[in-house]
Amino acid sequence: MADPGTVTLRPHGRRDDAEGMTRQQRTFEDAVGGLAIDLAGLHKSYGAIEAVAGVDLQVAPGEVVAILGPNGAGKSTTIDMLLGLTRPDSGTARLFGRPPQSAVAAGAVGAMLQTGGLIRNLSVEELVTVMASLYPHPVPVPEVLERTGLGDVAATATHKLSGGQTQRVRFALSLVSNPDLMVLDEPTVGLDVESRYAFWAAVRGLAAQGRTVAFATHYLEEADASADRIVLMARGRIVADASTSEIKGMATTRTIRATLPFVLPAELEQQPGVSRAERHGDTVSLYSADSDAVLRAFLSEYPQARDIEVAGSGLDAAFRALTGDPGAEFTDALQEVH
Amino acid sequence: MSAMTYVRFEVLRTFRNTRFFLFSLVFPLVLYYLVAGANREVQNFAGTGLSFPVYYMIGMVSWGAMAAVIAGGARIAAERSVGWNRQLRVTPLKVRIYLSSKVLSGYAMALVSIGLLYGAGLTLGVRMAWADWARMTALILIGLVPFAVLGIVLGHVLTADSMGPAMGGITALFALLGGAWGPIVGSGVLHDVVQLIPSYWLVQAAGSALSGAGWPLRGWIVIAVWTAVLARLAALAYRRDTARA
Q1: How many CB pairs under 8 A join A and B?
Q2: pTM score of the predicted model
Q3: In terms of pLDDT, which residue wins out, A111 or A261?
């Protein structure tokens, strides 16, 4: 077992908050100026497939970050490297300034992986108790069972649970660790609406205590409702990293396309109202929240532009532009929100 | 934070696995009564110098306890198949404690098997000095070490689906070659070859204990070499399994 004496222990105070978790302790100091998560130049390929193609990400303690992206964007591989489950081909991952395995061994990290079942022949309460025993200052087991709505099935054997109940137990197993950093990979898959609500309430409870939370999802709705910051991934890269409100701003972005040779994107980005510009061959694309104003200025500045199109409305087009060609599921999820 | 909690619950889980309980414990016991019960008057079984009830007691103990300790590590396959190992790797649980929990739960089950068969032996008239019982038990527990490590290897290289037949086949093979169901041959080349198998020395625990001397040096070497080689394989299998994830 990790020796608690080797890490800095500090009572986190008896802070009562809306979510009711009290008397929590932290494994690490708040690490003033330090980072909860620091990923630098992460690459990982599986055969010819480049799952993660250069990810840099810094998360300060106390941030709630959503890693949003379509299936196959590299979210899970990034999270596996972040947790030390997968060794990157190149680049480094550090949690609280140490290698992931070391932060995990100190009990500073709670994680809910994307897939996974439970071991058999234990009751829900026993399994949560076993998990609690591994951590330096776990949340009391009855409190965890109550917060995850598992009180009624506490005595039920783990192999007799429904899919939704199993998912809630998995959340309970990560919650009981009372972590400084909580990492959740697509945590609400398989949960019914009511359980989702309770789940995010518990996550916000962690956030209210100043814990760092990073979660992967392909639902913009979830990212919007629970995160301060959204990291948008596509094709193994981070394609946008901004506050939730900024990302929502992008959602109203329109794209102006035109054939316009010999003009650099950097020059176009100088135009008022243009958030981003790209060039593919002779075609330039301008992204703007106010396409009418940009178009007027653009036409007077560049009368030689032709084949002008104004495309896309809202989220779908904006994220399509940012993430390439998202899977149908992602597009549907976006459409729902829109 | 306590490593003991994980080990304690692991043992509890093992004892709750009723199907395994039945096969690992009841099978050797029933066979013992059927075979040794019918031959309880035989005083020198196949020239071993041991009475039939003594020889068959140690034989069934070897078989049952061997199956129990292999199954301890083999359960890792089932936990790998549901991703539990990945979950544990994001907790502070040390690999050493995890593997110890498997070995100890296997040994706990083996002790129950040994206890039941000793009891059955007593009912068929097996009598030994306390010192001989103790010496025999100690030799069995040591002789089980390579099989406990073998379980960990199997748990990392096999799938949960293939585990049943693999376990049955492997324990049967070791039991047969080791002479758990009766000595294979009394002398000759084959006799020399089977002495290189650790289950042979498991079965010899009774005779060696009764001789008052324990295993000859050759027995200790065989057990030690098998343990060392299997431990190396277990480390490789573990590393391969975690690197792939």
Answers
A1: 92
A2: 0.80
A3: A111
